[in-house]
Automatic annotation (TrEMBL):
Domain of life of the source: Archaea
Residue spans crossing the bilayer: 20-42, 54-79, 124-144, 150-173, 206-233, 262-284
Naturally occurring in which organism (per UniProt): Halorubrum aquaticum
Keywords: Membrane, Transmembrane, Transmembrane helix
Protein name: Zincin peptidase
Keyword Transmembrane helix found: yes
Keyword Transmembrane helix: yes
Length: 298
């Protein structure tokens, strides 16, 4: 920084009430996408559907309540490694992490890892994405190798919870590398020169882009499978094909064309595909709408 270009606050990314509601909507979309991806991958790799039957039927009626308790545990305990990994990345860059929990505007429960340490832009991106990358990279091979289908639940919730981290990554990447980022419990503060400030990011636009993209992609996938699927499979001489598990969220498509039976089915898996495409479309639109980040001065 020079005297002619004093440092100032370029942006405050705060968890406002409106942002909380919008992130809840996008997180729900991320949950649908995550479950379709992880449960579908498990079904494809092992040939088995994800099951949460931890206790045999011989235990009696108490098996179901015990199964539900374990599912509830899996649905919340993932927060511990998620925030610990944020903290591990913070320590790597010289910070001292603090942990806590809260409820944003009485709408969205959340946990956090924060610090008083200042980060460069790229360092903060690593802090943001470490839990998503690390838990997915470790969890998926373990789930498939040991055939622990129940891991699809914490992996799904970890990915859904990381939607806010991905959005914040997109936000800070709008600034040049030399800006400094200060984290706190409910958001981040970005410091730099006045010339470093890009145009503001619209979370509302992100939400609507995501939902609209998901709806269009889901409908297009449905039409493609319902109309194009039978034509293509018949031309290839395929008499029977099932993708996903009928009766479950991962069920995508089934086709039978034999002398004994002719049937076609398209399931809720199209929502997962639509959601994945919608989220990708929303983040790409957000980045491209604002143009490239300012370049560092020579």
């Amino acid at each position: 920084m020079t005297d002619a270009e004093p440092e100032r606050v370029l942006g405050e990314l705060e968890l406002t009430r409106g942002l909380t509601i919008q992130m809840t909507a996008v997180g729900t979309l991320g949950m649908i996408v995550g479950w379709a991806c992880f449960a579908g991958l498990y079904r494809f790799a092992t040939g088995n559907a994800v099951s949460f039957d931890f206790f045999p039927a011989t235990v009696g009626w108490i098996a179901t309540p015990l199964d539900l308790l374990i599912v509830a545990f899996l649905g919340t305990f993932f927060l511990v490694p998620h925030e610990w990994l944020h903290g591990l990345a913070i320590r790597y860059y010289g910070g001292e992490p603090r942990y806590g929990v809260g409820i944003a505007h009485f709408v969205l429960p959340y946990a956090y890892a924060t610090t008083d340490h200042e980060f460069s832009r790229n360092q903060f991106v690593v802090v943001l994405l470490t839990p998503l990358v690390a838990m997915t990279a470790v969890g998926v091979p373990v789930m498939l190798a040991l055939e622990w289908g129940w891991l699809a639940l914490p992996l799904t919730l970890n990915a859904a919870g990381a939607v806010a981290d991905v959005w914040m990554t997109v936000a800070v990447l709008r600034y040049p590398e030399h800006v400094r980022v200060v984290d706190h419990e409910t958001g981040v503060r970005i410091l730099g020169r006045e010339a470093d400030a890009p145009r503001g990011l619209s979370v509302t636009a992100l939400v609507w882009d995501g939902l609209a993209g998901a709806a269009v992609a889901a409908f297009a996938t449905f039409v493609l499978l319902a109309l194009g699927g039978p034509i293509l499979l018949t031309a290839l001489g395929v008499e029977s094909l099932t993708i996903g598990t009928p009766g479950r969220l991962t069920y995508l498509f089934s086709f039978v064309d034999t002398p004994e039976e002719v049937s076609l089915g398209v399931g809720p898996g199209v929502l997962g595909i639509g959601g994945l495409i919608g989220l990708a479309y929303a983040f790409v639109r957000t980045y491209r709408r604002e143009g490239p980040p300012p370049t560092d001065p020579a």
